[in-house]
Write a structure and sequence with these properties.
By secondary structure, the chain is mainly β. It contains 3 helices and 20 strands. It has a 16-stranded antiparallel β-barrel with strand order 3-4-5-6-7-8-9-10-11-14-15-16-17-18-19-20.
Length: 440
């Protein structure tokens, strides 16, 4: 089915948006902004290296086709530009008790350029400035790393091409910082069936990471490497003219160094025979994640998005995530989005509150402990095209502004009184994001 999105001048070819037959009534905001199935809990900016270990190096752009709930994109490639700024701040360390948290400021610029009606090229560039308020005294070298900032630079290049009912995409990218370098390649293919009411998508990716230590006097041999391979499969179906659903599964294998070079673990800290050692994690990790998503359009110009995610890996970490988003048009040009998400996780097999000298994998990584978390927030999306036109600003066919505020809260014993209190007990974070997007 084809929809004419707006009228053109006489003789000018109209802009066409091709949607599936049954989902053509869905408003534009029904689209998900999906992220990696393996990402798990809310992204947490501790330092650049930990950020990568938390969300992985799998590029989000690869997963847009695999886990989005729109069966087909635009019938013709279009030119787009967007810039986003995000500020993140939390109040506690996930590694050390009684240590303050971090702040992160991120800028991301993305450009998409149509090469032909069926082919587009995408570029993105990001800068993260991450600061830590306090660092732990190094018990191994007796040296203290002072508070400071580090900067991460990232960039990516993507190519998207459509042939009939099949969409192909390929992406590559890298990120650089003082203690972590990453490079990745990815590809995906998605095919529409049943008059574009059904889509099957396959995605693959490969990442190569080099990890460095900034710890003073570190005698270990760095850099160390980690390779990550991921494959994902998804199935999307229009259930009714108002409802679409998707299921997906992602499998990842990570091999190499997966601990944190700067982390120092206190062994038998409750005894007089306490000692200090470097953090050690297994060098192989197999990860599986499955997701079910349902989007429902509501007749009062609203939409409801619900999703459930189950995750388990070879380290013994298992988690369940429930998410809900509600979209509502407040006017023809303004959309309100409310969100809530509950996350619960079990501890890794080798994680202990008080590590001992007999542990094979001593760790203080708070991401591996048992905990629960809650995330909630609000977002406003404003179509500023009309307002810009009245003000005499003509920089594109469509201009969107968005403002988002999310609150993230970790807690123990939300679902079980046996939760083990870890360093990030009660951690609270605030995330603010503003963005500008234009279509040409």
């Amino acid at each position: 089915m084809q929809l004419i999105t707006r009228r053109k001048a006489k003789g000018e070819r109209p802009k066409v948006l091709r949607l599936t037959s049954h989902v053509s009534r869905l408003a534009a905001f029904v689209l998900l902004a999906p992220c990696s199935l393996l990402k798990g809990d809310c992204p947490r900016f501790t330092d650049g290296a930990s950020l990568r270990r938390r969300i992985g190096t799998v590029p989000v752009i690869m997963l847009l086709t695999a886990y989005g709930l729109v069966l087909t994109g635009s019938a013709r490639a279009e030119d787009r530009f967007s810039v986003k700024y995000q500020h993140y701040e939390d109040d506690k360390s996930i590694y050390y008790k009684d240590a303050k948290g971090v702040t992160s400021d991120r800028w991301l610029i993305a450009i998409s350029k149509a090469i032909t009606e069926k082919t587009s090229l995408a570029l993105n560039y990001g800068v993260d400035a991450i600061s830590s308020a306090s660092w732990k005294v190094d018990g191994v070298t007796s040296a203290t790393k002072r508070a400071g900032e580090e900067t991460r630079y990232s960039g990516g290049l993507g190519l998207n091409h459509t042939i009939g009912t099949v969409n192909y995409s390929a992406n590559l990218g890298l990120s650089r910082e003082n203690n972590y370098n990453s490079n990745y390649l990815s590809a995906s293919v998605a095919k529409d069936y049943n008059k574009r009411n059904t889509t099957v998508a396959l995605s693959v990716s490969k990442a190569w990471d080099d990890i460095y230590s900034t710890k003073i006097g570190d005698s270990r041999t760095f850099p160390m490497s980690k390779d990550t391979s991921t494959v994902g499969l998804s199935f999307t179906q229009a259930l009714t003219p108002w409802t679409i659903a998707a299921i997906g599964h992602e499998y990842t294998m990570a091999e190499g160094y997966q601990a944190h070079p700067e982390n120092v673990v206190c062994l038998d800290c409750t005894s007089i025979n306490r000692a200090y050692t470097d953090e050690v994690h297994p060098e192989t990790r197999y990860r599986n994640a499955s997701v079910l998503r349902i989007n429902r359009y509501l007749p009062w110009r609203g939409a409801l998005h619900a999703d459930y995610r189950y995750y388990h890996d070879s380290w013994g970490v298992g988690s369940n995530t429930l998410g809900l988003k509600y979209y509502q048009y407040l006017s023809d040009d303004l959309v309100l989005r409310l969100r809530g998400r509950f996350y619960t996780q079990g501890a890794a097999d080798f994680y202990f509150k008080n590590p001992s000298a007999t542990d094979s994998y001593p760790t203080i990584d708070g991401k591996l402990r048992e905990f629960d978390s809650l995330m909630y927030g609000v977002k406003l999306i404003y179509n500023a095209t009309k307002a810009a036109g009245k003000a005499g600003i003509k920089v594109g066919e469509k201009i969107n502004l968005d403002l988002k505020w999310d609150v993230y809260q970790q807690a123990d014993a939300i679902t079980s009184p046996t939760k083990v209190a870890g360093p990030s007990t009660g951690l609270k974070a605030s995330i603010v994001q503003v963005g500008l997007g234009m279509e040409f």
